[in-house]
Amino acid sequence: MKTYNKAWMVLLLLQGCATFTSPWSPQKNSATKQSHQEVMKELDSNFHREPASALNELNVDFTDLRKVSPGKFEVYLFPKVSSQTSKESLHKDIYLGPPKVFEVSIQVVGHCRQFISEGLFSKYKPSEAFPKELGSDSQRFCAIMEISDKRLSNIDKALLKQDDQLSVRLFIDDSYRIHAVDHILFETRNKNRLVRRVSEQETFTSGLSFFPMDLPTSASVSRKTELESHFSKKLDPIAKHQIQKRYSSSFSAPRCEGVVFTSKDPLGGNSEVGWCRGIPWPSYSENRRFFSVTQPLRVR
Amino acid sequence: MKNLFAVILLTLSGASFAQDTGQFEITKTNFKDLYNTYRFAAPKAVPWAGNFFPYADRGTAVKLDPAGDKKSGGRSPMESYALISGGSTEAEDWEKETHGCDGYDAATKKACKAWWGHCNGWAAAGIKEKEPRASRMIRGHEFSVADQKGILSELWLSSYSINAGITDKDVKTGPWVHEHDKPTESYNSFWDVSPRSFFLIFTNYVGALKTGIVIDRFTGDEVWNQPIVGYRLLPIRQGDIDEVRDGNRKYWSVKVRIKIYWANDVDIRHGHISKGFDIAKMKDSEDLDSLSADYDGRYLAFRLNFDSKVTVSSDGKKVLTAGKMVGDGIWEHQENSRDLSYDDLNHTHPDFIWLPTQSFQDVNGYGNPHINPAVVQKMIDGKESAPAKEPVQLRLSFAPRYFEGAATTPESAKKIVQSVIRRDGIKHSIYLKDIEISRNKVVVVVRFPLGVDSGSLVKLFNAAGMPLKLE
Description:
The complex is a heterodimer. Chain A has 8 helices and 13 strands. Chain A is an alpha+beta fold. In chain A, a hairpin with a 4-residue loop joins strand 6 and strand 7. The longest helix of chain A has 15 residues. By secondary structure, chain B is of the alpha+beta class. Chain B is built from 14 helices and 17 strands. In chain B, helix 6 crosses helix 7 and helix 7 packs antiparallel against helix 12. The longest helix of chain B is centred in the middle third of the chain and has 15 residues. Chain B starts with a helix and ends with a strand. Chains A and B meet through strand 1, helix 2, strand 2, strand 3 and strand 7 of A and helix 1, helix 5, helix 6, strand 4 and helix 9 of B.
């Protein structure tokens, strides 16, 4: 039985007043009851977008990002393309579009306090991106990574369009939590627009799927496994052929022991991330927007 | 055929069509911050008004005079395109064959004549391209504003995009729309853009990023794509906030009111130049503001729910406290759906929302393969383009086992061949009359307007498990 906070006396007093709004009742009809049930269900759930603790068991060392040879790596992304524009009927089919390549460059890895209070890489204003608390723990590491769309980096500037996303800059800590994302958007031939989006403590999504790699969360279900078979289910022969033809002729599925993380967020997004033991970045990930594959990483 | 389909199903296992915020990435969900920082907003580059080049007029093959009005002896945007792309009439031929209303059954033809057009191409161009505001002389020919807008709408007719929500174009809005506790597929596709998704997409993209987005403003079976030029959240009144208790649990339900505005494409002349739009000048009332014919808008109301108390300033323009959003929320017209006519419901919340990222040719055949983005860019810049690449025509010969055996039709063969070529994003066109089906082989003639590396094409089909011979 539901009870409502608004007093009936107030209701009676205000009845007839043109501006009066009656207290809203979730018992009004089947639509409101449905909405109420959703709220109750979500109140009972406890979704938090935090990095998955299972990474500790993988011997993943965040600081190895600075040992990645040669300081940057590539991610091949297959966008999920829908046929929504069809005018004739309901089209839900999605297919993988031609791959895009993104370059991930590790700008700097350092103690979080160096970014927050010692002016490391101050040109990117990391003190406004990382939370102050990180600076008080001398053991914590942070990093700034830049991910750029190679097609957009290489084409004639005259061909860029309004709001094309040229790159993103990630402010990330050693638990693989993203604290802020800088979006660099094309505005005119002489000017780009920078928009910083600081991630909230309890954000629903990773903030990463703009491109090109998702990360696991504490809400992820993790399963220790060999990665090759999971990966091969995702990467069909056409996609494998495309990577080998365009980017890496020796490319093959990652053969390693690792963990596959799966999760579903409250906004309806599913993601799967495959991570090899001892490697500081996932081997592949899939979410609503793409399937992406990391160039096999070597750590010096 | 089995091999190919196995490959594709394998790839997409686990991929379901986007629901809720779909493919939009939401990083900010804090209602207080979003409301206070982005209570009203507009894209950095306000999209322009244009004509949707209806299929009933043969799309961008419509003959126009220099002012952009229909004229039987005039020149179409596609004919103009031929003047800067080497003289080939293929773009116009393709447009006439593909973007008209011939060849459909009576019901489909009726829909085609009523609302099919280039609204998605115009909407995407309106977001990604600057508005052509003056005619240009190229190679001694005048390219009117209408020519330029028509060519841009054709280029962007098919694009990579981020989507939220789906639409069911097969089913008219009917009693099923009220079946809130027995949702059908049609029901889900009608109501799948929830108030929470709508609020988060608008505030995160138009608000925070200041990028354009497109909505389908027709909630039911038709599709009317409109680029958003701004939105305005109205002040929250004390009476809009209710505390709801259920046993020992409680939450706060808030009625949120918003006005959204979009650029128009109906009754706009092909060569029209847009007037400005300023979201700051719109009013905080539920009545729709007085707008020029270039823009239109809509008032919407919905409820969002929060896990802790919501308080607002006395003028309702600042949220002082608010908890985390819980649940999808409910549209006011969803709550009161039985009080509204189906036509009223068709003009409520967006049926789907999308954001174009890059033009390309999709599998549905909407993207005109004879339009070259580089040539279009030269036109925008008022420059002559380099000589066009030589088109290539290949006869692809396959063993019948890759198709549907005796049931193979030109349509199904075309679909299967395109489903492989599209994976490499190669511009191409296939005409049904050029497909030969016999007991021994299926031959598909494919034209590649921008050329193709035949060796790579063979390898692509090999990878797909469909070896072919080039005849």
